[in-house]
Here is the input.
Amino acid sequence: MLEKIILFGGTFDPIHKGHIEVAICAAKKVGASKIIIIPARRSPHKHKQPVAHDTDRIAMLQLAIKGLEGVEISNVELNRGEPSYTIDTVRQLREKFGEFCEFYWLIGADMLPSLPLWHKIIELLDECNVCVMNRGGYEKPDFDGLRGKLKPELIENLRNNMIETPLIEMSSTEIRQGIIDGKDVSAFLQPEVWDYIKRRKIYLPVDFE
Ligand code: ATP
Here is the structure.
């Protein structure tokens, strides 16, 4: 039988409870034995840069997955040169894990509209199951909105691959802003991650007293 593996890419700046909860829920729903979290690297070519350094994002990920069975972190994207694309990540992991596994690449509903623009999207959709999840605070995934941008059968596959995850209103952007505004964001983060952020003063302006 094929081993099912969840691939979950993102900036994780920082990783929040919502990330963990939807990934675990998705793994249960598809029957995956493994979740691989893949932090994206800082890219001089992307205008939206992670605020925290790669080492801090990795450290927070390690704290967040401590004790979670079957959850691991992959450095494939952090170690790759520019440009770095999801299709390259999937192919690299395919080489590592071999042909007897099935990949499920998770994206939140907010990412669906831009999916047709991803590099080599047709090949990516052929080489792994791209699975859209609900995201609290966003509309339900609009598969019909992809008409004219992807072939109808690919849109149908995406629709069928959708994973009904709980609606969780959390985002790393809001957490970072909350920290700057002095709000209590502890409920959104695992305690060890929150301790790390406080200790290292990540996300606070450099001139913060
Ligand atoms: P930012 O607010 O900075 O964009 P984010 O919270 O979206 O950050 P990312 O690291 O960019 O976090 O997200 C990684 C993946 O997780 C993306 O596919 C995103 O859509 C998904 N995701 C993030 N938060 C949620 C959530 N609350 N529910 C479902 N999916 C989520």
Q: What stands out?
A: The two ends are 57 Å apart (CA to CA).
